[in-house]
Amino acid sequence: MRRPLKQQPNKKLKHNLFDDLPDDLVVFILSKLSATASSPSDFISILSTCKRLNQLGLHRLVLSKAGPKVFAVNPRNWSESPHRFLKHCANAGNVDACYTLGMIRFYCLQNRRSGLSLMAKAAMKLHAPALYSLAVIQFNGSGASKREKDLRAGVALSARASLLGHVDALRELGHCLQDGYGVKMNVAEGRRLLVQANLRELALVLRAVTRAPLMSDYGVAVPEVHPANWFLREWFASGRGELGEGLRMCGHIGCGRPETRPHEFRRCSVCGKVNYCSRGCQALDWKLRHKMECAPVEEWVEDGGGDGGAGVENEVVVQNDVV
Q1: How far apart are alpha carbons 38 and 55 in whole angstroms?
Q2: Which residues of 78-106 are buried (b: 16+ CB within 10 A; e: fewer)?
C-alpha cells in the first residue's frame, strides 16, 4: 500500500510582503514616524523591530526629520550612546538636534565653543528657540566676562526670534524698547509688544489646555517645556552636574539655565531672593509662582540676604498683571 504524499508547505504563505517594499518608501514612512514620536523610546522601539528597520532608521533623511521629543533624553541615562545619536542627527541637518545638543554642551558639559556653534547652526536655519537662547547668552555675556555682553546683538536676535513667533523673545524685545536696553528707547512701541506677547501667550495656553490641561498650584496654565530646557533642569537636579561656588540657577522652573559666572543673572528687585536669566523667564515665573511668594526687599536685607556686589543692572523689576 502506497503512503500518502506529504503536502508541500505553501511558500507563498511564508513570504513577507514587507521585504518587497522599496527602501525609499520605508525611509519615507520612518521619517513620518520619527517626526511624530512622543518620546525617545517610541523611536528606539521602531529601530529594534528588525535589522532592516534598524539600518533604514538611521538614514540621513529619517534623522533630519526627527522631532524634538525624540531628543528628550533622561539625564540620568546620559552616556556616549545618546550623545552619539544626537551628533548623528545634528550632522544630518536636524535643527532640533543641533539646538538640544548645543544647549547640553554649552551649559552641562561646559564645552562653550562647540555649544555656541551648534546653536548658531540651528539659528541660521531660523530655529526660534536657538535664536532666543543666543540672545540670552549675549544679554548676559554667558561663558565670558561681564564686559563681553553684547546688548545690541541680543536685541537683534530677539527681534529675529519674535518674528518667528517666539513669545519670550517678543516680551524681551518689548522690555528692551521700553527701558532703552541695547536699543533706542521707545516706550509706546515697547508696551505694544508686551501686550502682543501676552495675547500670543494666552492663545498658546488656551490651545494647550484644550489638548492636555496642565495647571500650576495657583491655577495658571503651564506652557510645555522644551526638551533641551528639561534636560538642563534635570541634569543639575539629579546631581549629574554641579554648580560652581556662588553660581545660581534661573528661578523659572521651565528654564534650567545655570549661571556661568557669579552674579550673571538678574535678581528680583522686590525680594532679591530669586534670579532670572531673562525677562521672559521672570515674567512667566511671576505669573506661575513668584507673585504669590514675593516678599518686600526689607525682609531679606534684615536677614542678611542679597549679594552686595550686584548693582541696578543686575536687578529685574517685578512684572505687574498687565504686562
Answers
A1: 21
A2: beeebeebbeebbebebbbbbbbbbbbbb
- In tens, the pLDDT along 236-245 reads 988 888 888 8
Q: Rounded CA gap, 120 and 153, in Å?
A: 13
pLDDT per position as a tens digit, 186-226: 999 999 999 999 888 888 767 665 555 454 544 455 567 88
CB atoms within 10 A of CB 270: 19
Residues of the chain with pLDDT under 70: 1-18, 205, 207-223, 296-323
Integer Cα distance of 36 and 67 in angstroms: 6
User: What CA–CA distance (Å, rounded) separates 55 from 234?
Assistant: 32
Domain boundaries, the chain: 244-316
CA dihedral 245, 251, 255, 258 (to 10 degrees): -10
Site of grid cell 511624530: 36
Report in angstroms the alpha-carbon separations of 303 from 275, 297, 300. 18, 10, 5
Type of residue numbered 237: A
**Contact of 260 with 285, CB cutoff 8 Å:** no
Provide the pairing of β-strand 315-316 with 266-268.
parallel
Q: What is the pTM of this model?
A: 0.81
Grid cell digits, residue 264 = 550673571
For residue 177, the Cα-to-chain-centroid distance in whole angstroms is: 25
Nearest of 323, 11, 21, 306 to residue 193 by alpha carbon? 323
Taking the CA atoms of the chain, what radius of gyration do you get in angstroms? 25
